[in-house]
Fold:
Amino acid sequence: MSLAEISVKHQALKPPYYLSVYESYLAPLTASTTALLELGVNRGGSLELWAEYFPRATVVGIDIKDIVEIDQDWKPIYKNGRPVLKTFSSSRIVSKMGSQADEAFLTGLSSDYAPRGWDIIIDDCSHVGSLSLQSFLTLFPLLKIGGLYIVEDWGVGYKPDFAEGEAFDTKLHLTEQDGKFPSHASGLAGFIKQLVDEVGMDDINALSKTGRPAVVDWMHVYKGAVIIKKRRNVPSLRFPA
Structure:
């Protein structure tokens, strides 16, 4: 079955366009993937999707709230006055409650469920640039070399009513001012543009002698989703002081 078909089966709520993009990247990894982490899992349908698509993988999802069972109207099911925690179809699926910006939580989770590193990490969490940055700083070093890091819904950075978002200034678009090219730099869209510099890190390092080699092999940008392939490990993503 395709990703889109499995998504419908489990009510994963992933946009069909995303899944059509992901298929070409993920299909070659179905047999080799052993550890997948998704940040932000809502009702948990996407965890069922990944577990079926990657039959050898431990699939871990985190969310700021517990994942609970829902009825046909998508309302939480209660028992004895408390919401019923979701029961997943496979023991390979793990859900944990925690913040994507909690370094200790993410590090401990990685040690417990992916001691050799994650094969795939998907950030479908807050969509807030500063929080996604914190997740990236913690988790990208814990991704296997050759692994994929996916950031979803980065277009919310253009929405002034979304956290850290800001309206796009059309007067600045495709303009040049004294050799500089002003651009939208707010919210998740701004974070994604910082990641472009990671792709250019070989040139940055050669010219500025930062001492920090490139960690990104390539970065493919799509409407709403970005896919990044890891090149190598470094002790820290921060530049030396």
